[in-house]
Each structure stands twice: as structure tokens, then as C-alpha cells.
Amino acid sequence: MRSLLRQPFLWFLCISGALFVADARTSSQPEAIVVSPAVRQRIALLWETQMGTSPSANELESLIAGWIEEEALYREAMRLGLDREDSIIRRRLVQKLNFIAESDPVAEPEDATLEAFYESNIADYTLPERLTFSQLTFGEEASALAALDALASGADADTLGESTMLNRNYSYRSALDLNSTFGLGFASQIDTTVLSSWQGPYKSSFGYHLIRLNSVEPEQATPFFAARDKVVRDYSQANKKSARQRYVENLLENTEIRIE
Amino acid sequence: MKRTTIASLANHFQHSRQFFLVAVVAAATALAGCSDQAAPEQQAATAETEIHSQAVNLATADAANADRNAYFGDLHVHTMYSFDAFIFGTTSSPDDAYEFAKGGTVVHPAGFDMTLNRPLDFYGVSDHAFYIGVLREMANPESEISKHEIAAGMTTLGDAADRGRKFYEIFDFMQTERAPEINDPEIRKSAWEDIKAAANRHNDPGNFTTFIAYEYTTSDRDQGNLHRNVIFRGDTAPELPFSRIDSQNPEDLWKWMDSNREQGIESLAIPHNSNGSNGSMFALVDWAGNPLDSAYSEQRMRNEPLVEITQVKGTSDTHPALSPNDEWSDFEIMKLRIASRLESKPNGSYIREAYLNGITLQDQQGFNPFKFGVIGSSDTHNATYAGDEDNYWSKVGLRDSDGVLRGSVPLDEPREGGEVYADTYFNQWGAAGLAAVWAEENTRDSIYDAFRRKETFGTTGPRMKVRFFAGYDLPELDDPNLVARAYADGVTMGGDLLAQSAESPEFIAWVARDAMSAPLQRVQIIKGWVQGGAAQERVIDVACSGGMAVDLATNRCPDNGASVDIGDCSISSNVGEAELKAKWRDPDFDPNQNAFYYVRALENPTCRWSTWDAVRAGVEPRADMATTIQERVWSSPIWITPAN
């Protein structure tokens, strides 16, 4: 039976038979093809988009003739049910319907809804430990140590350190950020329990650094207000998925499915 | 890695002002981190005052760094929707590509994991427009397109050789009159919609920027490569991308882009692999063979402000035959036309020569069709950026997934005739490159504006940073406000400087190393000028490592002695610089000449990817290939407009 199913000629017979029956059943007078002003405009616009200029009268005439022919063939193909056997058309139509199903009817969800969504997906809004600090860069360890002494005796940090492409102040940098900016192993040298006083020198790919931590944010959830934009995006993404799911479930509920 | 986004705080402040003060202070501190001058306390105090008066849009105005930050990305990435990538075994989607760029892991078709050691700042998936999604559909035995004769074998692709054959079969078919037979618009629309949606889904202002993009993959009649990536500014793009099947003529692409722009869809195109164009990318005639004119020049520059200078398929700065006096010109030269074994002729194929021809046209006819900036990118066909020598998976899936296939490690059995290595051109490919911009913040608008300003640079992979300014009253090098003052008093890369006196303007070239790569060896300025109708070029070292001085007779730094142990790829410690900075005047400056200047900076030598392959396989590196390379960065040029 399996090998029989693989015979293209057998398929051809079945399909042409089905088409014959379908054809016989629906041979009423076909609906007229109407070239409305809207159709004309659409055809002209399409030409314009592709060619960069609007079609001449002759061009428009032959475009319309082509459209009429295409429309007639399209209708006949649909009437014969040729679309039903084509998995590309099938997939394209499903994609279009998915798009409709996913389109979110609620423009701006209530904050309460968003907050609930945020709470149940809190891992997506959790930030690693982040350091906010000032740093001074020195080419030599000895100059870094001398500057540390000077700072201890009240020197102004703005007058110390070399001018480099590194920033003097960084905010909310994770260990990954720090290692990427200063070199592997840099983050682990910093004592995160010492705030507001200069520490170091710590070696990096650029030299030696004195660091003054202004604050250390522990690993924590981004507050809802700060995460709100991302929550809105994520919520709408998730909503599309569930809207599609509901749409499909609803469809399936109202469709008899027989597995034979 | 996630970071509090200043933009999201900013938006919040716009929506509701009666807010926890602590949040305001936090935001203000974050802003202070961006501009490195003001102390955080001062910024916080200002912010506090402003919030109390409730009179200002606090964060959107200040969140951006006026001195601009360097952001690194890849604008040339193929996924399963590209006809060739799919044949090569790539099943990674645009979503997978963006997840990878943000630090995630993607599995190579050969089975190993691909992960970056740190995320990128921006990424653009750029699949081939023609046959976009079609080959993937051919592999689905239920699809109509799988029944086309050219689809034969698509459901049962085998080894690297089999995939190579199928690639050339489709590639050849695409160049026949029958090409449109399989260019199914419905399949293409569906793939393109997914690509657009994925880009918009992953765009995260402040943290990670994506661009809707695609590749216009055309060529001339002799397989001279004319490929371009088209990058869209916004979150919408036309229903279908314009492809070579619409027209092989790049001037038609520009028309299409112009017409999109009139309808509010802004985009730019970035040519790549001019090295494989056989002289056609920067030819001095148009598609029809006529000499270039100002209308051509304007249209080209309106649509193509940038060119890709380096990528896996070689580097397009210059060629030893074109720049015989540049000792670093023989670098990652890819000799062939793209996807062929035909030689590509150097004339008309390299960027520096195009710059020279451009200023010559400017000098003689008053227009310059080659006044573009530069970026690097990878051209990966695995969905995954491939610019790290020691973390390299090349770019064509199962065809070059290990050292044997890419010709860096000997075959198990020598070929007929005794050849020890695979017969392939993948050994001519390199681990490169990165696109970089100076932009106020990591958002589409800010980065795209940098593309348009040509305030861009390209690297062969390391995240080196280059600043480049020219002007008549530039600050001193140790000025703590150097960048702000140089922006105010000069022009930066991508710009034009009007010659104002017989004196040379000042140039500041400032380069910082990548903290995770090798230190710097030297910074060079490359000058091109027109004298008596003839274009000339010169490479001038302006800053040397180890505090050494440039020999003014040769314009060269002394050898800094940096070396590489190719037994284990370790490099000399304590040689090379973290930063190099120079203020330079051109002793041969002539205010009546058209000229350009750009920066090239070199790292100390490191192992090439092929040497890493050999070390890991426990074999000797191949004798007929470079064992080490000097990774480098190129800035976009500054052009001099003559005084008269």
C-alpha cells in the first residue's frame, strides 16, 4: 500500500478526478472582473514603486490587460482548488492569519497587568552586581602608590592620574563589563566592601588603577518603573504568543477533528 | 549582561515626575559615568535641583555622552535564510543570531558551541535578497519548490564536498536566464517578514542595537563582485528587498533606495569585498561603460557613505601591487573573485586607490564618487560573528568547520600528486572584522547618524578605539577636555577640513588597545594627495611604542622587538603600548592640493587563526602561509578642501 501511495500517476488520477467532480459542481456563471479606479491606482502604484516613474497610458493599458488575465487565471485556479495542494500557499496563508491572530487588540495594557507580568518573570529583570566608581590610571605602579598617598593627605583626585581614553567615572558596571573594558581578571581585584575611599593600585591592560567605589548595587531585580519599557515589549511579545494560542484553540474547539 | 538603561529611566521620568528621589540620584550618577568630566556628586546635585523644579526633561538630554562612545558590531551576518548558508548546513535563525550577539550560544552545524567572550553592541542580520528563504523551503519535501529540477538533492545534502557542489549548482543557475523560476515572492516575503520582526524584537535602546538589513548580491559580467549590504534606519522596510534578479545594476539599487527615501524609508548601502571585484567596485566608468559624472557621484554618495574594509574574505585597504612602499600592504590579501578560482585584478578593487582616484576626479572635474568612510564586518554564514583568531570557526558551515577543511591542518592522507593540504581557498580567509562608530548612545538613531557622518572605523577583530581630529587650534594632548575641545575646534573622521592657510593643520591621532587583545605597536597616518594631476600616497608613522621616536628620514618607528612563540602562541610581555597618541603636522602640506588623511594603527604581532589551528592539532603551521598577523584598525578619512 505504501509503495502504491508513492506512485505519482496514481496521485495524478485521484487529483484530476477530484477536480473533475469539483468542476462539475460549481459551474455557475462566474462573477465579473471589475477594473475599478482603486484597482487602476494599485497597479499604477506598484509600477511606480518598482520603476521609479509612473506608467505611461500605453504601459498602464497593457498592465491592466495583464492584470485582467492574471485575475481570470487566479480565479480559475482558486475555483479548481489548486491552492489546496500547495504547501507554500498554505504556509503563507497561515502566516497571514497568524499575523492577524497575534495583533494585540489592547494598545496600552494597565500598569497592574504589566506589574503582574513583571513579577512572574522577575528573572528576566534581574541585574548582576554593579559597581559605580571613579578611577585614576597610571602607567607605573610607583606613581599610582604616590598618588594614593597624596589622596590620603587630601589631594584633589581631579588633578591626579593620566589622561586616557578610559573614563574617569563609570556607573553600574558588572564584572563582565569591567573585564571587557580593563582586561581579564580586573573585576575580582576590587574590594566591594570598601566604599568612598581610594583603593588599589590594581593592574589592568592599561597600567595601574586607583578605584573609589561610590556605590555597589547588589544583584537585584530592576525596579518595575525602570524596567517598564522592556516589560511592555516582553508583555506584547508574550501576548502575541498567547493570543495566537487562544485563536488556534478557539478554532480547534469549533472544528471537528477525526484521526482515522 | 544587563544594565539599567538610562533611556528607560528617562522615559519613565517623562511619564511621571513625582518619583523616588533616590531613583533620580541613581540616574544622575549614571549620566555622570557617561561624560567623564563632571564629578558624580555635582551631576547628582544638579539633577536633584532640576527635578524639584520639575522643569526639564532630565535624562534624555543628558543620557547621551556628548563626547561620544565607541560601539562595536557586525553588519554582515547570514542566517538560514541565505541560499548558500542553508546549503552549508546553517539552520540558525535571525533570532538565534541576535541572541548570539547579546552573549548567547549558537550550535555550529558541525556540533560545537559558538559563544563570544563578550557581547557586541550592535548587529544586523543581512541575508542574500535573491532566493531569500527559498533553499530552506526546497529542503521541505512537501513544498512545491522542492519539485523544481534544481532542488534535486536538497533534502539529502551530505558532506562538505557535496554541499560545495550544490552551492555552485545554485550559484550558476542564479546567473542564467532561468534564475527567476525559483525566486518565489511568497517564500521571500515570509522570510523577509521574519527577519524584520526579529530585528525589531531584539532592538533594546541603550543596551543593544539591531538593524533591519539585507545583502544585494550582484556582480558584473565577469564575476567581478559588486555585493552591498543595505541597512535600514527605522523599524520598517519595503515588502521585498531589491535583489540582483530585479536588476544586476547597482545604479538601479540606488534608484530604489532613493524612491524609498522619498516615501520616508531611509537606508544606506555598504559595498564589500571590493578585493574580489576584479576592478569593478571602484571602476572609473558606470554600469553602461560611460565615464563617471557628477550626477553618478551624487547618487552614489547619497546612498553609499561607507565601505567594508575588512572581513573574513580578506582585507580591501590596499594591495602590494598598488602600494609598493607600504610595508604592511601584504595583509590578508584574498586574490580571487568571489565564489570562484578566477584571479581578481587589483586596480579598481581597493579602497586606498579609490580614495586617490576620487580626489583626482575632485581635482580635475569637481566631483568625488569615492568619498566614503570605512567599517569592518564578518560576512559570517553561520549567523555568528567570526573575528577572533583564537576563537575562529570561519564562515561557511560544514564546508570549513575544522582545520583540515580550511587548509590549516594536513589531510589524513595526501591528495593525488602529494599535496598535504586540502585544495581550498578558505586558507586565504581571515578572522575579521568589526564595525565601529563614535555615537552618543547605543540606539538605532545615534548609531545610524554616525554611519551617515562617516564617524566610523573598522578593525580586524580586536576592539581597538581610534580618535582622529584635524583643525587649526586643536587642544594639547594632555588636555583633560581634549575630546570635547577637538570636536568644538576641529573636524573628526569622515569630515572635510577647508585649508585656511599655507600652514599645515594639526592632526590628533589617538588609539587605545583592546584590553583583551595584544598591545599597540605603532600609529600611522596615511596621506593621499594630487600633485600636478597625479595621485600620490605616503604612510607616515606618527607614534611608536616604548617611547621611541619616529625616524624623520624614513617616517618609521624603530622595531619594538615584539615577538610571538608560534609553538604556543604566547606573545612578548612588556612590549607595546596600551595607548598611543600624537599631534602631527604635515611638513609637505600644500593648501592648494586635494588630499585625504586616515589613521591606521597596528597591534604587536599575534598568531593567525591558522597557527592556532595547527597548535591545537599538534602540527607545524603551514609553511606557505603567514603564521602571525598584526591586527589593525583603520579610521575613516578626513578630506582637505583646497583653499582656492
State the low-pLDDT regions of chain A, or none: none
Please, how many domains of chain A? 3
- Count of strand segments of chain A: 6
Count of discrete domains of chain B: 3
Mean pLDDT of chain A: 82
| Mean pLDDT value of chain B | 89
- Tally of DSSP helical segments of chain B: 15
Tell me about this structure.
The complex is a heterodimer of chains A (260) and B (644). By secondary structure, chain A is α+β, with helices and mostly antiparallel strands. The two termini of chain A are 16 Å apart. In chain A, helix 6 (111-120) crosses helix 9. Chain A is elongated. The relative contact order of chain A is 0.10. In chain A, the strands form 2 sheets. In chain A, strands 3-2-5-4 form a 4-stranded antiparallel β-sheet. Chain A has a two-stranded antiparallel sheet with strand order 1-6. Chain A has helices at 2-5, 8-25, 37-51, 57-79, 87-102, 111-120, 141-152, 175-182, 224-253; strands at 126-127, 130-138, 169-173, 198-203, 208-217, 220-221. The model of chain A has no long low-confidence stretch (mean pLDDT 82). Chain A folds into 3 domains: 33-81; 86-125 and 222-260, no CATH class; 129-218, Chitinase A, domain 3. With 644 residues, chain B is of the alpha+beta class. Chain B has 3 domains: 6-63, no CATH class; 70-434, no CATH class; 465-641, no CATH class. Helices cover 25% and strands 21% of the residues of chain B. In chain B, helix 2 crosses helix 3 and helix 10 packs across helix 11. Chain B is globular. The chains are: A alpha+beta (260), B alpha+beta (644). Chains A and B meet through helix 5, strand 1, strand 2, strand 3 and helix 8 of A and helix 1, helix 2, helix 9 and helix 10 of B.
Task: Give me a quick take on this structure.
The complex is a heterodimer of chains A (260) and B (644). Chain A is of the alpha+beta class and 260 residues long.
